[in-house]
Amino acid sequence: GLYLLISSLLQALNGFVLVVTSEGLIFYSSHTIQDYLGFHQTDVMHQSVFELIHTEDQSEFRRNLHWALDPPHAPEGEPSATAGKSLSSSAVIYKPDQLPPENSSFLERSFVCRFRCLLDNSSGFLALNLQGRLKFLHGQNGRSEDGSVLPPQLALFAISTPLQPPSILQIRTKNMIFRTKHKLDFTPLACDAKGKIVLGYTEAELRMCGTGYQFVHAADMLYCAENHVRMMKTGESGLTVFRLLTKDNRWKWVQANARLVYKNGKPEYIVVTQRPLVDEEGGEHLRKRSMHLPFTFATGEALLYQSTHPLPGFPDLFQSKGKLSKSKKPSCSHAGRSQKNGIDPRSLLGAVMQQDKAVY
Question: Residues annotated as region Disordered (predicted)?
């Protein structure tokens, strides 16, 4: 009951709670961070906060973490981002009698920083107002190099709210938007609670098959793959409208934007923000796409209707002679057969072959 109460209070708050240690590690973030920045709570906890903050704003954040707004300077020639990540090794440990009392107005904080944002209504960063105070973070039991227990240190406890109030449209659509997390080849790793409601799958069902393309309509696969390649090159897919297969074997149109998430300068995983569309909206996008890509293979019809008009050199997609799965979830049992046919089950063609013909 208490968890539900806290959860509903966080939802009502236009922002999220953030607790950052004096050395810049995110000790805690409320789950509502996902509604504002697109990162899942577990993605950011115990990570350096400086990985999320715009380079130009890192020194301002570091200044506000310090009790006297005067942090120790980074070594000469060391870039600020690196200084942020290596702060733990150079963190100054204070004894409680060296710090002002916890109720001092001197420890109140209110400042603005730009945070990295994965949502498609941002330019990659969202300006947040952080309002709160420095308080002692107890129970850490950290030890110094000589093994003695370190005293509790001040940490920033703040509520982070967007500088721009959300528009009515954002508030209305926020409840329908869901997010998924993928490996770099698009294999599903996680899906939030709203996504599970929209698609009907459990996280295990999404993760147990190949690259995730077997949930995509055959006529949308090449179009999605093209935007996937664009995202790997530029970091963002751009607006992508396509059909996803739901648990009850129906096609659901979604408008999506995929972004690469980097760790230590290297792409680590993909986060996709998706908004369900009604069929009419999806159909309109498909018509626009068909005008840009008149060649049938580019819009996928060649894959779909190949069994009626076979292309020389391609095996019949649905030649499994009635052995296709009738289960309610995408079947992975065809992967082995795909390899026997000389088709990689992780390829687009392999993904189509794993789909049940009945869904078309």
Answer: 319-345
| 22 and 158 housed in the same domain | yes
Q: Alpha-carbon distance 130 to 46, whole Å?
A: 19
- Do 230 and 278 lie in one domain? The reply is yes
As a whole number of angstroms, the distance between CA 39 and CA 329 comes to: 28
Please give the order of strands across the beta sheet that includes 26-29. Answer: 26-29, 16-20, 153-162, 125-137, 108-116
Instruction: Please provide residue 338's backbone torsions phi and psi, each rounded to the nearest 5 degrees.
Output: -60, -40
Tokens found for residue 285: 């996008």
Please indicate, yes or no, whether residues 120 and 201 belong to a single structural domain of this protein. Answer: no
Summarised one tens digit per residue, pLDDT across range 120-175 is 656 788 999 999 999 988 877 677 777 777 788 889 999 999 988 766 656 555 66
- Name the domain boundary from 291, 317, 347: 291
pLDDT-derived band at 347, boundaries 50, 70, 90: confident
Range of the domain at 196: 171-291
Residues 33, 36: Cα–Cα separation, whole Å? 5
Contacts of 279 (CB under 8 A, 6+ apart): 253
Domain boundary among the residues 291, 324, 351 is at 291
Q: What is the mean pLDDT of the chain?
A: 78
